[in-house]
Amino acid sequence: QVQAEQSGGGLVQEGGSLRLSCTVSGQPFRAYAAAWFRQTPGEEREGVSCITFNGNITSYKDTFKGRFTISRDDAKNALYLQMNSLKPEDTGIYYCAAGRLYQSVSYLCGRGGADFGYWGQGTQVTVSS
């Protein structure tokens, strides 16, 4: 059974940085596309960033481009999201997700996570002004 365990997140001032981590166990992580999604109150879950199973292609929502970086370390079965220049509007609950998926990451990120079968528990990110 695949499980995803998240760490990181918390409270940071505007302009600060945070790093989210997600460790996937139970199956070879290298076979999985992976992603970060965000949920805010009253809004639909949105794709923050997605990465292919081999790490060659990434996709970012325009809001996060140039500030966030997704990466993976298959030797550690780990997915990361480096978040820089944080803004109050980045606040939300961030979820990692993984799945044996081979479609375009732009497509996967744009579907709100509907295709991903394995999810982390979520972690709160709060950016104060």
Short recap of the structure:
The protein is mostly beta strands and 129 residues long. Helix content is 4%, strand content 47%. The strands form two sheets. Strands 2, 4, 5, 6, 9, 10 and 11 form a seven-stranded mixed sheet that branches.
Which helices and strands appear, and what pairs or packs with what?
Elements: E1 3-7, E2 10-13, E3 18-25, E4 33-39, E5 46-51, E6 58-60, E7 68-73, E8 78-83, E9 92-99, H1 105-109, E10 118-119, E11 123-128
Question: Can you give keywords for this protein?
Answer:
1 helix; four-stranded antiparallel sheet; 4% helix; globular; mainly beta; 11 strands; 129 residues
Characterise the protein shown here:
The protein is mainly β and 129 residues long. The chain contains 1 helix and 11 strands. Strands 2, 4, 5, 6, 9, 10 and 11 form a 7-stranded mixed β-sheet that branches. A 4-stranded antiparallel β-sheet has the order 1-3-8-7, with no helix packed on it. The model has no long low-confidence stretch (mean pLDDT 96).
Give the helix level as a range of percent: under 10%
How many β-strand stretches? 11
User: Which of globular, elongated, flat, extended, rod-shaped describes the shape?
Assistant: globular
SSE order in H/E notation?
A: EEEEEEEEEHEE
Separation, N- and C-terminal Cα atoms: 41 Å
Q: Give the biggest beta sheet.
A: 7 strands, mixed
**Radius of gyration of CA atoms, rounded to a whole number:** 13 Å
How much strand content do the residues show? over 45%
**Uncertain runs with pLDDT below 50, 5 residues or more?**
none
Mean pLDDT: 96
> How many H/I helical runs?
1
Coarse structural class: mainly beta
